[in-house]
């Protein structure tokens, strides 16, 4: 079967700084893959290359076998199929929660404002934010903002959702409510690529865990294998460091 | 302090009587006021028709300068050159050059009016300044906002229109009003190429009555308009600061 997302020998540098180095990985449809690794190991850049927020230097990114990273491809139709949620939420501060969600529904998908409102309201209700529809982002807690950001991406009904360290900017007591949303997505058929520092969460939710080191896949496998019997020495070192505090 | 010193000291100066008579003559004030108000109406009109043109032109220039496509490099260069040239020359020089130069080409009435071309010169220079204000506003919107909008599939034009510009314009309302206060005064410079607006009318009255009071009246009329506008600017500025810069530190 064709992988949903396929990274083939991807290279990406910012100036002299090589961030992704000959990175290759296939992700199946509906699979949940977490990326762990030290800061600067390339997790965020990898995700941003999948929805073309970054242009790769070499190699190929494929979506359903289709080379989306080809030079000159219009990124907009691809981004409708591949959503992303950012570490810093990035809600639009000048729009209400509802409008944050419906903007792309009406302007990109061409839904009528009535249909867009209905879809947004359903999602807000499903994730316990129904009463926040008319509120502005700065009146929400970080956890609520991030849940709205997830809903905003989900409303586009993407096939693939990229979660870029979505709990890293949150107070510890707010992490749970955001992770609960992600738990609910697992098994819905959506493909999840998750960059995270939450090791327990990665272990719990992932079908596979991928340890990145210096922009390449150092080790990839089932969560139990990666966390209990890591084979690669760099994975072992990383996990020791993470667990020692 | 300064005010008290001025009020106490100036009347003691040896020639205060003469100055008082030639700058603050009450009868002269009464006589000139209606003419000056009439003439001021022209300032208001010039202000009213140049302002929208300035805003539209400035926004287009700012958008051109903020374009990102490599193919649009010539447009960016042109927009940058425009703002540099417009801001690099005193307003009054542009008014002379355009206001006398263009009608001198032999255009037919009414296209040869100094009033028209003086206004155009004013609009050209101010659009250069205002474009920079818009550009600063656009630049101040964090790149992550664009990333969020683009990641949802919005085109770069949609991103600019729905996400970046609304935030940018909100942030630059105070500096924009500041430029409007300046424009409101610089309208008087158009008088230098002919149109009888308030400053020129004051000059005529001064010459006729050999008295400077009309200038004082003109200044007061300007203040009656600019002070409320300045207060409004300050108020909006403070409100924006409160909104965006977090909790105030106690004095």
Compact summary:
The complex is a heterodimer of chains A (245) and B (251). Chain A is 37% helix and 24% strand.
Descriptive key words:
heterodimer, A: 245 residues, alpha/beta, Rossmann fold, 6-stranded mixed sheet, 4-stranded antiparallel sheet, 9 helices, B: 251 residues, mainly alpha, MetI-like fold, 10 helices
Largest sheet properties of chain A = 6 strands, mixed
Percent of residues in helices of chain A comes to 25-40%
Shape of chain B: flat
What is the CATH H-level superfamily of chain A? P-loop containing nucleotide triphosphate hydrolases
Helical residues, percent of chain B: over 70%
Largest sheet of chain B: none
Major protein interface? A-B, 25 and 17 residues
Radius of gyration of chain A: 18 Å
N to C succession of SSEs of chain A: EEEHEEHEHHHEHEHEEHH
Strand content of chain A: 15-25%
Mean pLDDT of chain B: 87
- State the low-pLDDT regions of chain A, or none: none
Structural classification of chain A: alpha/beta
CATH architecture of the domain at 45-195 in chain B: Orthogonal Bundle
Give the tally of β-strands of chain B. 0
CATH architecture of chain A: 3-Layer(aba) Sandwich
**What's the oligomerization state?**
heterodimer
The ordered H/E elements of chain B are HHHHHHHHHH
Indicate the proportion of strand residues of chain B.
under 5%
What is the CA-based Rg of chain B, rounded? Answer: 23 Å
């Amino acid at each position: 079967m064709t992988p949903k997302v396929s990274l083939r020998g991807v290279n990406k540098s910012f100036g002299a700084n090589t961030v992704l180095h000959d990175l290759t990985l296939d992700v199946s449809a509906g699979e949940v893959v977490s990326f762990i690794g030290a800061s600067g190991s390339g997790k965020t850049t990898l995700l941003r290359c999948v929805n073309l927020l970054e242009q790769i230097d070499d190699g190929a990114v494929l979506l359903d076998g289709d080379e989306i990273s080809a030079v000159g491809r219009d990124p907009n139709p691809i981004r409708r199929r591949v959503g992303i949620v950012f570490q810093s939420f990035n809600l639009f501060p000048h729009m209400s929660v509802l409008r944050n969600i419906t903007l792309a529904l009406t302007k990109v998908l061409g839904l009528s404002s009535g249909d867009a409102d209905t879809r947004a309201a359903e999602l807000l209700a499903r994730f316990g934010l129904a009463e926040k529809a008319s509120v502005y982002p700065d009146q929400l807690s970080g956890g609520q903002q991030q849940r709205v950001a997830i809903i905003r991406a989900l409303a586009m009904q993407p096939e693939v959702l990229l979660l870029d360290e979505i709990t890293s900017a949150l107070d510890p007591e707010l992490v749970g409510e955001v992770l609960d949303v992600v738990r609910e997505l697992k098994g819905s058929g959506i493909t999840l690529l998750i960059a995270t520092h939450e090791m327990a969460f990665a272990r719990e939710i992932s079908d596979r865990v991928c340890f990145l080191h210096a922009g390449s896949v150092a080790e990839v496998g089932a969560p139990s294998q990666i966390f209990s019997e890591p084979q690669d020495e760099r994975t072992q070192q990383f996990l020791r460091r993470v667990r020692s505090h | 302090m300064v005010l008290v010193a001025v009020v106490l000291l100036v009347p003691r100066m040896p020639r205060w009587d003469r100055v008082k008579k030639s700058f603050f003559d009450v009868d002269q004030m009464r006589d000139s006021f209606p003419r000056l108000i009439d003439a001021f109406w022209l300032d208001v009109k010039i202000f009213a028709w140049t302002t929208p043109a300035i805003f539209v032109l400035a926004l287009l220039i700012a958008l051109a300068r903020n374009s990102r496509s490599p193919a649009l490099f010539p447009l960016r260069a042109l927009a940058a050159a425009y703002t540099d040239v417009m801001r690099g020359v005193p307003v009054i020089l542009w008014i002379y050059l355009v206001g006398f130069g263009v009608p001198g080409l032999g255009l037919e009435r009414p296209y040869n009016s100094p009033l028209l071309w003086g206004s155009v010169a004013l609009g050209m220079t101010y659009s250069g300044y205002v474009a920079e204000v818009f550009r600063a506003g656009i630049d101040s919107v964090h790149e992550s906002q664009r990333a969020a909008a683009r990641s949802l599939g919005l085109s770069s034009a949609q991103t600019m229109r729905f996400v970046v510009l609304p935030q940018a314009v909100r942030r630059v309302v105070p500096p924009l009003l500041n430029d409007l206060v300046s424009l409101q005064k610089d309208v008087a410079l158009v008088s230098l190429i002919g149109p009888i607006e308030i400053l020129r009318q004051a000059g005529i009255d001064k010459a006729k009555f050999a008295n400077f009071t009309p200038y004082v009246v003109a200044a007061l009329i300007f203040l009656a308009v600019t002070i409320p506008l300045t207060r409004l600017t300050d108020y909006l500025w403070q409100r924006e600061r409160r909104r965006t810069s977090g909790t105030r530190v106690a004095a």
